[in-house]
Design goal:
538 residues, 7-stranded parallel beta sheet, 12% strand, globular, binds zinc ion
């Protein structure tokens, strides 16, 4: 059994435990375990069989038991039981329509319905109002929502890795291509779509409805279906005739404005053929946001990246040692890795004092002995204090190879103060890069009020780069801001901000975000050889 399948089942279990209003900590533990398993580089089924699965983070005795049952019998009996009881297809549909999971289950019980189809019938027959708590207004809203034929969108955007996995999993299972927001690498994905080439659409539509990710199909026509996950996230499937596959893929990938500007699209079996027929150069998906018919630049690619300049170790809140991180970066084919642990003002986690930073130098030197010619750089993610001073003295910063400056606390400062604070830090001669400049947490914390136009000016004057942070819930700067920064002449750094060996694997998210900002390799500091990075030229 593959890791993805195991993770899907654990996640389904977590969702159902939530629906059943079991202990919320248990549900969260299963969700976290699912995440760990998805990210694990080894076959988890084998770990389960050899009794070593508890070596994975967040997997205790209880979860191990469920995993053993899953690997040995192919399922979790209690999960199957919960699925019978709670009707995940109804829950998925209910959530898609804007009902809470709890309300969906109540509705199912009160009406004695078991499937999405029965919900439709009940709605059509006007029976919804019989359910306590559902008035004429809610009923009208549900009936309308069930009948609408607009582009399906998730109510809450999915983070890019989760969306890639969901859409990629559906595409792989059906032999199709991911499209929609995922293919454009949007930071929060609402439009999830897959395009398949199919001379017989019935077959692929039927397989789509049977996928474990899809609990209910809410719309179906001859060559199109919309299914929902148990979380109520809609996924659209387009089954295009093979000779129209390219046209369908372009249509399902670009933003509505981008596609409208190309219409009428000629018939084409592939994207290249389509662009050729239009007399246009091929356009990378990341650039298909606004209408564009020109020659696209040669965007930065993952292979251009020669090192990672922002990661953490066990010295602050990372999970791996300096050597482990260095070794993992070397295995990725990099030439260098900067260790940028936190400083004390970060607050919530351990930060390194000036003394700690100097003691860490010994460990970094030892790692360099082992890993040469690969280079582990002495760095810091130094907090910018509220008054703009840095959290380490200049004489310590002067010893380091690479200094990232970051605002952590006080993200809500009004624009003038925040901008002055950051400007002050950028004027420090040792600062090389501003981390996650807008401080947002996607879906949780909005961007801060920092005046980026001013930051671009100062960064340009001081030769400071701006980070494109690759943490899935940050992606900061985001694409639009990257583009503004590059237009202003500022350089960027693609970083993972990794807190573990696996975290180094987030580089593609940072690169995709830079690509959305039209970045070429020449704009990216860490696409250069080490000497050039260290010498501040370029
Ligand atoms: Zn940070
Ligand atoms: Zn960091």
């Amino acid at each position: 059994m593959e890791n993805a399948r195991i993770a899907d089942r654990l996640e389904a279990y977590a969702s159902l435990l939530e629906l059943a209003e079991a202990n919320p900590y248990t549900a969260r533990a299963y969700r976290r375990a699912a995440e760990t398993i998805r990210g694990a580089g080894v076959p988890v089924a084998e770990l389960v069989r050899s009794g070593r699965v508890r070596q994975l983070r967040g997997i205790g005795r209880g979860i191990e038991g469920r995993l053993r049952e899953l690997v040995e019998t192919g399922d979790i009996a209690e999960l199957a039981e919960l699925e019978r009881e709670l009707a995940p297809d109804l829950v998925g549909l209910g959530r898609y329509l804007g009902l809470s999971a709890k309300r969906s289950v109540e509705l199912a019980r009160a009406l004695g319905i078991r499937t999405a189809e029965e919900l439709r019938e009940a709605a059509a027959a006007g029976r919804l109002q019989a359910v306590p708590g559902i008035g004429a207004k809610t009923e009208a809203r549900l009936v309308e929502a069930l009948g609408r034929e607009v582009e399906p969108r998730a109510r809450q955007g999915l983070l890019l890795p989760r969306a890639r996995e969901l859409v990629g999993g559906v595409a792989d299972a059906l032999g199709g291509e991911p499209a929609g927001d995922v293919r454009r690498s949007r930071d929060s994905c609402e439009v999830l779509a897959v395009v398949c080439a199919a001379s017989d659409p019935q077959d692929v539509l039927a397989r789509f409805a049977e996928l474990p990710q899809i609990v209910a199909v809410v719309e179906r026509s001859e060559r199109r279906a919309v299914g929902v996950t148990v979380e109520g996230v809609p996924v659209e499937l387009v089954a295009a005739p093979p000779k129209l596959f390219g046209s369908a893929l372009v249509r399902a990938t670009g933003s509505p404005a981008y596609v409208a500007a190309l219409e009428p699209l000629p018939d084409a079996p592939g994207e290249e053929a389509l662009y050729r027929a239009l007399g246009l150069p091929c356009c990378p998906p990341e650039l298909r946001e606004e209408p564009f018919r020109g020659e696209p630049p040669a965007l930065v690619e993952e292979d251009d990246i020669r090192g990672d300049l922002h990661c953490h170790t066990t010295w602050s809140d990372g999970r791996a040692s300096v050597e482990e991180m260095g070794r993992a970066a070397r295995e990725r084919g990099y030439d260098y890795l900067a260790i940028c642990d936190h400083t004390p003002a970060v607050g919530a986690v351990r930060g390194l004092t000036a003394d700690d930073v100097r003691r860490q130098a010994g460990e970094i030197a030892a790692a360099n002995e082992l890993l040469a010619p690969f280079r582990v750089l002495r760095g810091t993610e130094c907090d910018i204090l509220p008054d703009g001073r840095l959290d380490l003295p200049d004489d310590v910063l002067a010893e380091l190879d690479w200094v990232q400056a970051s605002v952590h606390g006080g993200q809500r400062m009004p624009a003038p103060e925040m901008t002055k604070r950051v400007e002050e830090a950028l004027r420090n001669p040792y600062v090389r890069c501003l981390s996650h400049p807008k401080g947002r947490m996607i879906g949780r914390r909005p961007e801060n009020a920092l005046d980026l136009e001013r930051v671009y000016e100062v960064a340009l004057e001081e030769g400071v780069a701006l980070e494109v942070n690759g943490l899935p819930n940050r992606l900061d700067l985001r694409g639009e801001h990257v583009r503004d920064a590059l237009r202003a002449g500022v350089q960027i750094v693609c970083s993972t901000d990794a807190h573990s060996v696996a975290g180094l694997g987030n580089m593609p998210l940072s690169v995709a975000t830079a690509r959305r900002g039209w970045a070429t390799a020449a704009h990216v500091v860490n696409s250069r050889p080490l000497e050039s990075v260290l010498s501040r030229d370029g």
